[in-house]
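Researcher: Go.
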Amino acid sequence: MKNPKHVNRLLARYGGDILKSESYLKNKGFVQHGNVSVYRHCINVAQMSLRIGRRLPVAVSEREMVRGALLHDYFLYDWHGKKVGLNEILHFYKMHGFTHPKEAAKNAERDFRITPLEREIILKHMWPLTILDMPTCREAWIVTAADKYVSFLETIHVLKGDL
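Model: Structure:
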């Protein structure tokens, strides 16, 4: 799965409707980690999820895994906050990690037809921070791991574009 064109074809096949939607394109305007947009971050997570899933000796639903990965941070707001008081910023930062999976799932259900598996991926990707929302399927575990790895690389400015 080293061919980026092949990975991008899979993203287009499984999530083309998401990637082209007007509402999803708003994610290009929100920063996620470092200087990486939410849009680029979600694509990075979907690409990494495919790479991980293809290396496992068990079957996964690539379609649902890709769609869940693309929508896992579909919260549609700037979580970095504006210039307000330090206490408000610290409170918002702390709460975002706990609350954005539900906001992303709500938005995904409103704007796309998602399956129960896609919903689980979205809702549980922040584990172990959201300790009670532990993933229960392979696809959610893969996206959770991919999200942590990709987020780390983006935060230290190693990852800026395609994997």
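Model: Confidence is low (pLDDT under 50) at residues 83-92.
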